Amino acid sequence: MTGTFSVIIPTLNDKTLANALEAVSSQTRRPDEIVVVGRYDSTLLDTFPQVRFVDTRVPVSAAAARNRGIRESRGEILAFTDSDCIPDADWIEKHEQAHASGADVVGGGVSLAGANFWAQADNLSMFHDFVTELPPGHRSLLPTLNLSVRRSVIERIGGLDESFPGAAAEDSDWTIRMRLGGYRLHFEPGAVVRHAPARTRWHDVRRHWRNSGYSGIRVRHRYAADYQTPAIARSALLLRLLSPLIAARVTAGIYANPIFWRHLRYLPIVYITKIVYCLGAADSIESGFAFDQQAHR
Fold this sequence. Notes:
By secondary structure, the chain is of the alpha/beta class. The chain has eleven helices and nine strands. Strands 1, 2, 3, 4, 5, 6, 7, 8 and 9 form a nine-stranded mixed sheet that branches.
């Protein structure tokens, strides 16, 4: 037996929320409850009466919304996805099977299909370690757009760090804490979500990666020994100067896997996003945010 499943979805008036709720509500293994946290269009209350909406009244970060969802939910296993994700019909079923096999923390696969050019390039750059073509196995961290966790894990490890702004790197920090706390992070590519964010221009992708670098470098400093973070990651100047070389190395590492060769048209965008990540990290170092080592739970 795996226990009851609660699905938690943060939102900030996202136009894609209805599609996400339709997919979650139509699962082969129905969730025991669906909790949406944040700001939303009240007309959805009529369309999805089985969904419990928790109105935060003001916009809150993804970490704060998920923590509120954890407190408001009742399930023994908490499944997380985002309002711009469309889970496959057997998404919960696949997560449940992984938990039944002994996993406490399960991350699912991210499909690269179905989004526009900019969103697909962004997905490849961000989620290349979690695509559906990869085999199941251990991961060092997992993203919350497709994650399920036993409540007992959260009770021991704590919730997400709400000092991370927006929605960037707070899930890396959280799942690294789970792993360092002794829990194995299991990747199950058969538990699929299609991620179709509203990123239709380069400007949208650039802003996403600048924010990712700004918050992500903090995680790399917080867990420097685990990441083997190099000394240059403490210098904003060096990160800016060396960003083309760092980006080239990371991009080459991604495309070293033949499964990505059919996505070669995204290579220039992937490369540039890695440069933007370095520039965002440099901004974080200059602001002092990168060196905050205390985890706020």
